[in-house]
Amino acid sequence: MSEYEYLSRQLSNLIAYYPPPFIFIHDPSNLRQCGLAVQSVIQDIREASVVTLSCAILDGISCFTPRLLYDTALNQLADWTPDWESGCSNWAGPSDLGQRFNENFDGFIHGLKSLKTQLAQEKSKENPRTEYRTLLVVQHADRLKENMSDLIVSLTRLAELTQMDITTVFLSNLRWDQMKPSLGASPEPYYIDVAPITKEATLDRLASLYPDSSVPLNNEVISPETYHPELKQLYIHFLDTLYGICSPFTTDPDELAYIAAARWPGFVKPVLDGRRELIDAGHSEEEVGFRVGLEPRLQLTKLFNARITDALHTLYPRHTSALEWAKSNIPSEDILTHVSAKPPAQMKNDPAPQLSDLSQSISRMAKFILVAAFLASTNPAKSDLRMFGRGPDERKRKRRRGGTVRRIGKSGAVKIPQRLLGPIAFPLDRLIAILGVLLEENDADKRPPAPEYTIPGEYTEMEISRVAIYSQVVELTEMDLLHRTSPADRLEISPMFRCGITYNVAQIFATEIGISNIHELMWEPA
Q: What are the Origin recognition complex subunit 5 C-terminal domain coordinates in residue numbering (predicted)?
């Protein structure tokens, strides 16, 4: 890619001719690809024999203690591999005294100087005029601030402390201003900022990985027609949908290609099955073709949005392989009939046939959660105290009247009821609070006796704090009955959800759990 071509060219000139003592490379989007580009530059310099380059590439994640960092660096610089026969010992210097250079940073400096002396003697015999240079690369350097913040200053001043021709290179997805020590203890680095990979560049690279028709596909999951040339336009549309779902979590082209390879065979399977049915009915292959219209394309996108999210959650952390996931998630042959059998309006107005199996498959507590989610998505947050607040006296709700629209002047805007605008997002703690009120009012008579709870509401407080409630929320999210709107990696904020059921479904569930009329709990009743 052009971003890494610029990085490779600039870094190659610096290292080969006049490297600064400290280089900081900032890549906010794809640090792994940046590390591969740096390794490629180092390999090219070594093959060109411009300078004798000794390099150690460390990882701030695996080298989480000073000793691990010192030993890994010296072993790589000395080309030393610990083996079982020698006791898995680390590099101990040119002599047989068994020196240890991992006790502290002073010992590490002595180890670098001893290593320089040894390598200089070896290289001088081959070519006395060869220039010797050392490179220390630290990937995920921002982890040093968390585990070994005291080493940041020492590593950035390594050339000054050792009096050697050595360059320290930090690779991080954070800027130097976010991890540099205070009081200006570290020198200012030579900055190299890698521009984030654009969406167009990422999609172009993913589209370029589409297999050629001449490449044989011998796989029990992938049909020979899965990557037919006429399906490439549908594949580009699929990549755009995939990027929109996965981009909040990763924009690494390799990660996206891995997820696409697992999900594409299932995504295109309904198209291939429909084509095969037409051929079996007597149509010729030339007449049928592989073209997919706009409406089936939109149906596929709507149907597989949640399944792409499942693939992301499973494959991105590598809980399983792409092949195993593709085998276990092969769609059924009649999957598109569930989408196109009824128009959307009819499905929304007649939910009973579709709820027969769902109502039996979910628990009573799950129905309470769904009703609470519907109320949280319909009622404004400011109305919770009035609608669900409890005091010493009997509650007195004052709802907003529904069914009429107030007429105002021509210059003003008409406020549309929330039930017509669709569900709003709500935090998890608000859902739990509304759930507690519903349980206290509609489930207290059906609970087993618990004499240890004497204070009113104590049993409900214990019930809504169980882990099973949160597990039920996760399960309902996987069933698409709740939709999570906040990123899963944002742990500092409360998770945000949106209700995935309609008013009619909520009314049916409310009746089953003992809530006679859900209108009484709505701020703007229908």
A: 363-515
